[in-house]
């Protein structure tokens, strides 16, 4: 009994200190949109539908009924899926946790679900539980792991099509879907995959608060350390998620996250090669952290389970950069300037500022407005060595004499050690 009491106490204090730690300090996560929709790759009956592939059923896309959509499960056999390789990719990319679609709006469970036969183990020739494999690979690699779960929208539920628009929401069928599928599935994903980082609910629409409270209670019960996404609805999450692909221009208070895509959409689309290059991804990551947030970047494996090659290359290039300048991102805080500067952006760690120079000035001078705290040291990092920079003030502006060549081929980092926390005169 005593031992039991003690164990509970330890677990609780552990929970308080660890809760959301990877979210708060890691700052960079991998989002994975992978599901039955990946098998369509935005194509149906020979026609390509340009848009977000996980919305193939939508009337603005291929406009499919469940009877048309569901049978593709028989062709979904992602034999190239390699959980270890994906986790290694995330690790080399410098990401701290992975959030993967356990079930998207199409209602198809990507794991072994007892609550619904419309799942990858029961309905496909693949028969494996890729989420089990991913959870295990994450645990082995020290990578955080968590699930996306579409709690409100479920378009193929046998209890009726639940689009949850005002026009066709039927409260009885929603109640049935909630009791027989949604709630049991959230029990499953929070019970059967070890400790998880967070549950990423999406698109609450006008779902009733009582439903969301029940779902959040399940997460709290089974995963006391896990975060719940702001898109659970009714303010019941642990943090805020901005709009899809939104990176704010001014600092945002509180705990929040930006979610972004590597190309034009989430789920794999055969034609979508509009990849952001490493510098653009870096700018979006740094800018998010500089505004005070955490950045989650999506990948979309294809119907065979492969991560597109170009996507991997880009993630790895960003990962190499993060190895050179970890202090600019990990555990870093928002810019005291509260918005970007003409040449780039600033993140801070205690008395240290990391200046990320996106646009290297060709004048030999870098200007910093309004800094009130004295500079102890200023240096350009190159990943290998550091180059001391001369600093002085000119009409109230801080000026750094910089070399004509940037320190880094992607984004250069100048580090300032201050005599105290940065104070900035907003004028
Ligand atoms: O999972 C990803 C999206 O599928 C999901 N959230 C991210 C993380 C999401 N749910 N809703 N939306 C995104 C916005 C939906 C936009 C739409 Fe359309 C506009 C759906 C129907 C009209 C554009 C046109 C996309 C499909 C047709």
TrEMBL record:
Keyword Transmembrane: no
Residues annotated as domain Glycoside hydrolase family 29 N-terminal: 11-325
EC number: 3.2.1.51
Residues that span the membrane, as ranges: none
Signal in keyword set: yes
Keyword vocabulary terms for this entry: Glycosidase, Hydrolase, Signal
Annotated region described as Disordered, given as residue ranges: 1-18
Source organism superkingdom: Bacteria
Function: Alpha-L-fucosidase is responsible for hydrolyzing the alpha-1,6-linked fucose joined to the reducing-end N-acetylglucosamine of the carbohydrate moieties of glycoproteins.
Family designation: Belongs to the glycosyl hydrolase 29 family.
Name of the molecule in the record: alpha-L-fucosidase
Taxonomic source organism: Sphingobacterium ginsenosidimutans
Portion of the parent chain present: 3 to 429 of 567
